Amino acid sequence: MPPSRRAPPAPSAAPHEPRLARVAALVADPSRARMLAFLLSGEYASAGELARTASVGAATASAHLARLVDAGLLVCEPRGRHRYFRIADADVAHALEALAMVAERSSHDRAWSAPARLRLREARCCYGHLAGRRGVALLDRLLGLGWLTDAPDGYALTDAGVAGLARLGFDAATLRASASHRIAYPCLDWSERRDHLAGKLASGLLSHFIERGWLRRIGSERALALTPPGRQALARLVSID
After folding, report:
1. Rounded to two decimals, what is the model's pTM?
2. Do residues 175 and 233 both lie within one domain?
3. What's the mean pLDDT in 170-177?
4. Residues 27 and 74 in one domain
5. Is residue 85 domain-shared with residue 123, that is, in the same domain?
6. What is the rounded CA–CA span in Å between residue 72 and residue 54?
């Protein structure tokens, strides 16, 4: 009696493509990468501004932006006849900053010594909080002064911190009382490769510093400049040796 034959194995299904592959392909396009980098400040920008940033026409920019929104990297807010875009959330912003650090591992010092990047390295807006050398200094001082202390989910604002920030006109007590989750946490800095401060406290402080005229935006860049009144008011917190 002839031996029974086994049925041939069914062809294996195509391997699952990780979502990472799709996102990486989107970010890899130079025009889309320029748009995403421009939006890392955390603010909204119009489709026209992003088209100029990427050096593409309006139709091409719209196609790029539609793909970024569809992938969940950007959100769009229509206002009248115009559409405005921003980074979808802090997770996306942190992922983009991390990608930038990986991309520049072999040329970090050379890249950040270029004149065009010195302003960004000094101080910049990173999704609504202060980054760069002065952002790293801010976190160091808040911890060194005992205004922040380590907590399981990041940092906790101490009573000394509430009092110290009140002297700068910042209402940290209300912020601490109303926070439903972590108020502050570390964020690895793109240029410094050390942590700067992120979270609701960081966003509130940056807004306060700009409203007081202690920091000012440099044109449409992410870069920020410390003003003469800011040097005096923030001498303890953001000075650089």
Report:
1. 0.74
2. yes
3. 93
4. yes
5. no
6. 20
